[in-house]
Amino acid sequence: MNVRQRMDFLIDEINKQDKLYYQKNAPIISDSQYDALVQELIALERENPDLIRKDSPTQKVSGNRSSTFAPIKHLAPMLSLDNTYSKDEVVSWYDRIVKNIEAKNIEVKNLDFVVEPKVDGLSLSLLYVDGKLSTAATRGDGEIGEDVTENAKTIKDIAQVLETRQPPSLFDIRGEVYMDKQTFESLNADLTDGQKKFANERNAASGSLRQKNVSITAHRNLKFFVHSFGKMESKKVLFSTHWDFLQYVKKCGFKLQENIKLFKNIDEILNFIDEMATKKDSLGYEIDGLVIKVNEFSLQNEIGYTNKSPKWAVAYKFAAKQAITKIISISVAVGRTGVVTPIANLEPVSLAGVTISHATLHNFEEIQRLNVNAGDEVLIERAGEVIPKIIKVVEKRSEDFFKPPQECPSCKSKLIKEKEEEVAYRCINPDCPAQFERHVLHFASKNALDIDGLGKAVVKNLIAKDKIKTLADIYKLGEKDFLEIELFKEKKASNLIEAIQKSKMRPLSKLIFAFGIRHVGQRASDTLADVFGNMDALIAASFEELIKIDEIGDVLALSLKEFFAQAQVIKMIETLKAAGLNMTQPRQNINSAKFLQKTFVLTGELEKWTRQQATEIIKSEGGKVVNSVSKNTDFVLAGKNAGSKLSKAKELNIKILTQEDFEKLL
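Below the sequence we write its predicted structure tokens.
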């Protein structure tokens, strides 16, 4: 491949990665890998200026505008920054600033610099007209961005009105939309199995801001830091330095980062780089470097711009935490929800001051994508305090990629994948040791068998002492077993034994729910118990019989059949029967049922009962409770502050009950 071909390849590859990063929020390479491509292209262009293409990424601002939102032309271009990767490069940039000033004979009173942490988020331009927020636009291609005004208005850090008496008539404030680490972790944790998790905080922020449904953006808890402005029109001069600008926007109602500093010389800047390198992981949000800016606006204008970047500012990028090592073996761990996760066991390697011997492979689809197996040499990356991940295979030494196991490594039960498109393999054995604690806590929870006193600390202790290995073992426990637990007295042990005995009498619906069968919630448990009446009939039900039942679809029916097909499950149920647990559902007395075949919707705040209690009362009288109002609804039970469901009921002329009306019916 000659120089021309290599440059063409780099341009195509960078453009491809830009599209994945900016438009699809789905990067497939690390920031450091991307930066390496750009740096190679810059070096080749510097050596071969006659081969520079007009459409080269080095000649334009990074980023692309999607077609999802309306276009907005920026009042002034949103430029990107040149990057540096070492303190030597920062010193070289500083020297160029000084030479530029000397060459132009510029008189300088104070050559000082503002240094700000470079937040890893999404650039946003906020246009204020007479102090009121008019529009909000993403960077886009630097000239034209995307109109995300309504979404931006949901971000609490963005002022709707500038908090100053005489705001500029026009003020284009710019900054970074970001998602903090805690919100990012919660968001990914709340995504259901099968939903694609966000790769990092930057992708999560970008994807959340670009939602067509504004309410989704509002619930994502996005945040915003100001870092610059594009254009301002004002009757008087409000500030003449970048530092003063930041203090002004703070008075206008915006939040600033805590670690913004004003420095007088290059030595102070270099010391601050070292300080932030050790401090960055303790911040509540991700930063990938520092931005260094000449403070005086008049001096900025003298120093000038390239066609894509200001010469008076530069970004210092922290070194990526990467290393190359060899995979010794791949093992599989079972999580608390039964999902099995592959883990790479590595030849120990030092990475960012820590010896690393394990890295996550996320799931088996990721293994196939990476084409990775034991024996391969891989590039690993460690960001913050999270477990290292494998970025790519550097040298392929195995013949194939690692295949998912057929059996659970903890209990040897068959692993299932409910849908072909689902990524996760899982163990659904309720007695699986790796996920047993969660099953016991759910089994004993209030909406299941309601074993008051069998909480997390007690369950942990019982499992640690091998007192319970299956759910059925709960009913073999005696007072002596509980008295061995620290702080347990006879009264407390006696109460817990009594609660265990009472749980035997719960109806079948509670027992079905207590098993924690995937996709089977309280309502489905009630329906199954009412239809089949006893456990044996439910176990014997065919797939076809199950899907004929209202509210029972293909996925839920398949989950039930797979659960009851396990020998361990049948053995557990037989043991529970022998322990005296009720396996039947009380039949409704048709003649006395007040709400037989009647459908209720609950809305608002009920005073006399909780929602759960009201639901139980209705069900005990033969009725059914659903979530949404339709023409098939018979009654809407409305408490205080009832909302849209009450309005819908009035539209459809459905009978609305107050709590007093409901009592009279009872």
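Residues 604 and 623 are 19 Å apart (CA to CA).
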